[in-house]
Automatic annotation (TrEMBL):
Compositionally biased region (Low complexity): 1-18
Segments of this protein annotated with the region Disordered: 1-29
Organism: Streptomyces vinaceus
Top-level taxonomic group: Bacteria
UniProt protein name: Beta-xylosidase
Length: 428
């Protein structure tokens, strides 16, 4: 059987005024269907009645939505002079996107129909296709042109052009959650009452006003200083610690600390003054030459599994193994984050970075003092996600091995070719 012909006609852009629309989403609009030249029939003009539905009316950016285009009545007629047998009709068409996301969705139906008498109208058809949500907000779906292909005696295409099709379906897409990448490091893990500590923060909004404060459990102490993030979102401040209740230091944007706009607590100990002793000597032992926090990774690139054209699905892979060594001493932990750009292919084809997800693992080498926690499984995207971390605590040093299985989810009929993106890992 010959391949389906391209859909004839159609209108792009915002739909014109609807002729009729029901609460169920069924719409009616003018259509002009051109029979194949071999049929010797005139063009058929009249209304098409259709309905567009989706499997998910409230997706997130990066999700794949399945669209169903049902044509329940068409002016197109049987293009052959005798009866059209069962299961020789194959439909294909387009659904037009508007609002927050523009473009069109190609939909195709199964080769299925009841017998159609000579000169009778062609029967109802159902077509499906998918698209990836790339922008948050309200997205409209309107019927576009469609083609009815028959394969009895000859391969014949009846192309139906649509004018003024109204919106038949709507979805509202929500943005991906933003990862909180704010972090804090202290120049010292302890000090006497009244001593100051140097505070360094990263991941804040550029130019934002930031509060650096002492903490005792979930409550803030009297220790507090104001700072401002620079153009790269970095913060530097000197915090005098006078409240003996202070056990940690936090930094945050806004009027109060929150998990969305604040850093995690960095542990700090206020040393109590030693009581006077008669005829006593203080003995001090030192562990000298602390090392650094470093990261290495095996391999400079990763290649995902291939998918056959038309099928869509998940292309699996695995990042190069990352080894983090923390020889700094003290109680400071660390966070390893990653973010990925959009995937670009030949001819300007693109796949959003949010289509890449990972499932991280993190293992501490024997003898390591820190507790290694893998990041949550889920999308990476351009906003970034945590791959692994060690929290601030009594001890945070050691050697840690981090891996992650990755999956790139592609919709069906993604244009063939190699798609490339850049995955950036940052240790802080």
């Amino acid at each position: 059987m010959a391949a389906l012909a391209a859909t004839a006609g159609g209108v792009l852009g915002p739909p014109a005024a609807a002729e009729s629309q029901t609460p169920s989403g069924q719409v009616e609009f003018p259509t002009r269907c051109l029979p194949p030249r071999e049929a010797g029939l005139p063009a058929a003009e009249g209304p098409t009645t259709a309905r567009i539905t989706v499997d998910d009316p409230a997706p997130k950016v990066g999700d794949t939505v399945t669209v169903t285009y049902q044509v329940t009545r068409t002016p197109a007629v049987n293009p052959v002079a005798d009866e059209l047998p069962a299961d020789v009709l194959t439909p294909a068409g387009r659904v037009l996107l508007g609002g927050a996301q523009s473009g069109e969705v190609t939909v195709v139906g199964a080769q299925r129909n009841d017998p159609v008498g000579a000169g009778a109208a062609l029967p109802a058809v159902t077509m499906t296709g998918t698209f990836t949500v790339t922008a948050p907000g309200a997205i409209t779906l309107a019927p576009g042109g469609y083609t009815l292909h028959t394969s009895h005696l000859l391969d014949l295409d009846t192309g139906c052009a649509v004018t003024g099709a109204p919106v038949s379906g709507r979805i509202t897409a929500s943005p991906l959650p933003r990862a909180n990448l704010r972090s804090l490091a202290l120049g010292a893990a302890y000090g006497k009452p009244g001593a100051g500590v140097e505070v360094t923060g990263a991941g804040f909004a550029p130019g934002a006003a930031v509060t650096v404060a002492g903490r005792a459990g979930a409550a803030e102490t009297a220790d507090r200083v104001a700072a401002r993030a620079d153009g790269r979102g970095e913060v530097r401040a000197h915090l005098p610690v006078t409240d003996r209740a202070t056990t940690a230091v936090v930094a945050y944007e806004g009027p109060a600390w929150s998990a969305q706009e604040g850093s995690g607590p960095a542990a700090y100990t206020v040393l109590a003054p030693a009581p006077p002793r008669a005829a006593a000597q203080e003995v001090t032992a030192l562990v000298v030459d602390p090392g650094a926090l470093s990261m290495t990774q095996t391999g400079a690139s990763l290649t995902l599994g291939a998918l056959p054209y038309g099928s869509g699905g998940a292309a699996p892979g695995r990042i190069g193994t990352v080894t983090v060594k923390d020889a700094r001493g003290g109680v400071r932990g660390w966070t390893l984050t990653g973010k990925v750009t959009a995937f670009t292919g030949a001819g300007g084809a693109a796949v959003p970075g949010a289509s890449l997800s990972w499932t991280p693992t993190c293992t501490a080498a024997p003898g390591s003092a820190g507790r290694c926690a893998a990041g949550s499984a889920g999308p990476v995207g351009p906003e970034g996600a945590v791959l692994a971390s060690v929290p601030d605590g009594a001890a945070a040093g050691g050697t840690f091995t981090i891996d992650a299985a990755v999956t790139l989810t592609l919709p069906a009929y993604t244009p063939p070719g190699a798609y490339r993106a850049v995955l950036t890992l940052t240790l802080s």
